[in-house]
Specification:
heterodimer; A: two-stranded antiparallel sheet; globular; B: three-stranded mixed sheet
């Protein structure tokens, strides 16, 4: 049986062969989804955004749900790297490279979606040369760029033996950086004083907890998938270690969700938006209770903690997949739910007539192009991971039964 | 030497224009006018923080069912609908309210409130959303990337995203597909040497309602400043302390 102590240098890692029919089918499938996403972008940019379900009321839609999900997950995908290189948990050392590759891939996928959804994606260079330093968005441009550079540097320190000695300091900076990065992502909503569903500082730590949870789930699934598809050995200790960590992170997210809603339920001025999100919001309410809470949090917790399923790899994989689906539902509730609830411009008064949908809940019907754009981002992330494993030595060499 | 004489010529031209502007402003400022024609500066000189353009809207004078201000805005800026109200742009809208306690109904026009501390400007990543020194909040269509973050931040839903291809644009009010836009206080009008009031205020006056009073909030002689000094007024979402340039009475 292979042990982690055997990992001493780059010779313990290898590329995937990437010559099987399954490999080509996977690459072709992902490329097809990306092509569909690009077609969707073309449709949105040439026709205008009216071909999406987004409106002047629901300003952000499915592309933002996917983009934020990918960006948040990217930050947490580095958990395995941090466990290994910062906290010295050697069991995870063989998977640190893969963890960093996944993080970079997810961030690139998310940033691509958010860029292609812009009204003027051709002005990306403007976004990279004109900065309003009071804007959280502008901070994020630096945080995302820095994350990519640091992750690349970290990979270099792992892959180049002479650089190994600085792996720990680089990994430590990267860990701190991603905490700041996810704080920045959460604050995109936290600083919006006008919207009752946002305007709460807890968004920042909640997003950090979400990133830890979704990222661990994504990493666990990737380790299990690469193990199964390439015949590599994956130690039970790694699977169960990550499962236990994931259960803690899922609980932490639940805690923040509970506190944020609890605080707002307490304040008279916010009870309307809470009633909408938790009781009367239709799709949003279903997405919250059935998607985020039951399927995305309690379900996976049950699967990961109930002994009969907690020992089974398929059930653990199912739990991780549910955490990711629950994460998508959670971000959908945050983005769409927060925008669907009407702005309270006139406290103490009821809007009885408006030429611009004041005082009424807005409805959102996602269209095919925006869904394809979001899925295209996911496919792009996965394709980067698959091709990355083909060209550079990301995977440890343990063989089944080795 | 040539540079020096050019500079002198520039200086004297600037002085001439400034004095002319000031003379026109003084001439127009004589007496109390309902609508102030904003011409306190020369057309070629930069705007300054000594002025702050704003509006006072008296909702008791705003006639229910009248949408002359909305129509005038659309005509002025070439805003036409595509039969898709959810995505069609709107810079100004009419809202009718009922007080939860008294049941009293009021009607008012709602547009960009031209805040002194505008959340849209704070969140804009590229600086495309900006506030001019004279208080007008604008979008620079050349550097707006269409991220719509400003639309999330605006407490008044005053901004629209251009969801469609555009045609027949007005040369004085350029728009851009994929960018965000909102009421610009008819900046092309107020920047004219002689100054004209925004189209909505003009239309309201023409209809005989006179609910929208426009002028320089910092000029104690302006009608709007006098009215604000004499009667109670309020800003929308005063709790956010945005110090809006648009104020309401009898809401």
């Amino acid at each position: 049986m292979a042990t982690v102590s055997k990992i001493t240098g780059s010779s313990d890692f290898s590329v995937i062969e990437g010559s099987s029919a399954g490999f080509y089918a996977l690459v072709a499938g992902l490329a097809a989804v990306i092509a569909a996403g690009l077609w969707a972008t073309h449709a949105m940019e040439s026709e205008g955004h009216h071909v999406t379900g987004m409106t002047n009321q629901i300003v952000w839609g499915i592309p933002h749900v996917f983009a934020i999900f990918l960006i948040v997950t990217a930050s947490g995908a580095l958990n395995v790297a941090s466990l290994s290189s910062v906290m010295g948990q050697k069991m995870y050392a063989p998977f640190a490279r893969l963890s960093a590759l996944l993080a970079v891939a997810l961030l690139l996928g998310g940033l691509t979606v958010i860029t292609l959804d812009l009204g003027r994606p051709d002005r990306l260079v403007v976004a990279l040369t004109h900065f309003n330093m009071k804007s959280v968005f502008a901070w994020n441009v630096f945080l995302y760029t820095g994350f990519l550079l640091l992750a690349a540097l970290y990979l270099w320190t792992l892959m180049e033996r002479r650089m190994n000695r600085i792996t720990k300091p680089v990994a430590t900076v990267l860990l701190l950086w991603r905490i700041v990065l996810t704080t920045g992502t959460g604050l995109i909503f936290g600083v919006l004083v006008a919207r009752e569903a946002y305007d709460i500082a807890i968004m920042a730590p909640m997003f950090i907890a979400m990133s830890l949870s979704f990222g661990t789930a994504a990493c666990l699934l990737l380790l299990m998938a690469t193990g199964a598809c390439t015949g590599r050995f994956l130690d039970d200790a790694v699977v169960h270690g990550l499962k236990r960590i994931l259960a803690w992170f899922v609980t932490l997210v639940l805690y923040f969700v509970m506190v944020s809603h609890g605080v707002k339920l307490y304040a008279a001025g916010y009870q309307g938006v809470e009633r909408f999100l938790l009781l009367e919001g239709g799709v949003i309410t279903s997405m919250f209770w059935m998607g985020q809470i039951v399927a995305g949090s309690l379900g996976p917790l049950w699967l990961m903690l109930w002994p009969p399923t907690a020992r089974s790899r398929p059930w653990i994989a199912a739990a991780a997949a549910l955490v990711l689906l629950g994460g998508l539902a959670q971000i959908y509730v945050i983005v769409i739910g927060g925008l669907a609830f009407p702005l309270q411009i006139f406290p103490g008064k009821e809007v009885i007539e408006s030429g611009f949908f004041d005082g009424v809940v807005s409805h959102y019907q996602p269209s095919l192009p925006e869904l394809l754009l979001g899925l295209g981002g996911v496919a792009m992330s996965l394709l980067i991971v698959v091709l990355g494993m083909k060209v550079l030595e990301f995977l440890p060499n343990f063989r089944s039964g080795g | 030497m040539a540079d020096g004489s050019n500079a002198l010529a520039d200086k004297s031209r600037r002085r001439f224009l400034t004095r002319t502007g000031a003379a026109v402003a003084l001439g127009l400022a004589a007496g109390v006018r309902f609508i102030d024609f904003p011409s306190a500066r020369a057309e070629s000189s930069a705007v300054s923080g000594t002025q702050r353009w704003g509006m006072l809207i008296d909702s008791s004078k705003c006639a229910s069912g009248c949408s002359a201000c909305v129509q005038a805005c659309s005509d002025e800026h070439g805003i036409s609908g595509h039969g898709r109200p959810q995505t069609d742009a709107q810079w100004i809208r009419k809202v009718t309210l009922r007080d939860n306690e008294s049941g009293r109904e009021t009607s008012l026009p709602l547009m960009c409130q031209h805040c002194e501390n505008p959340p849209c400007v704070d969140v804009c990543p590229t600086g495309a959303s900006f506030r001019r020194a004279d208080g007008v909040v604008l979008v620079d269509k050349h550097i707006c990337i269409g991220c719509r973050y400003c639309m999330l931040a605006c407490p008044f839903k005053a901004r629209s995203f251009v969801h469609e291809n555009l045609s027949d644009q007005k040369p004085w009010s350029p728009r851009g597909k994929g960018t965000v836009e909102s009421c610009n206080l008819c900046v092309h009008r107020i920047d004219e040497a002689k100054g004209r009031v925004p189209a909505c205020a003009e239309a309201c006056e023409r209809e005989g309602h006179g609910a929208i009073q426009f002028g320089d909030l910092y000029d104690p002689a302006s009608g709007v400043a006098k009215a604000l000094a004499q009667q109670e007024s309020q800003e929308l979402r005063a709790d956010l302390r945005l110090n809006t340039g648009v104020r309401y009475q009898n809401l």
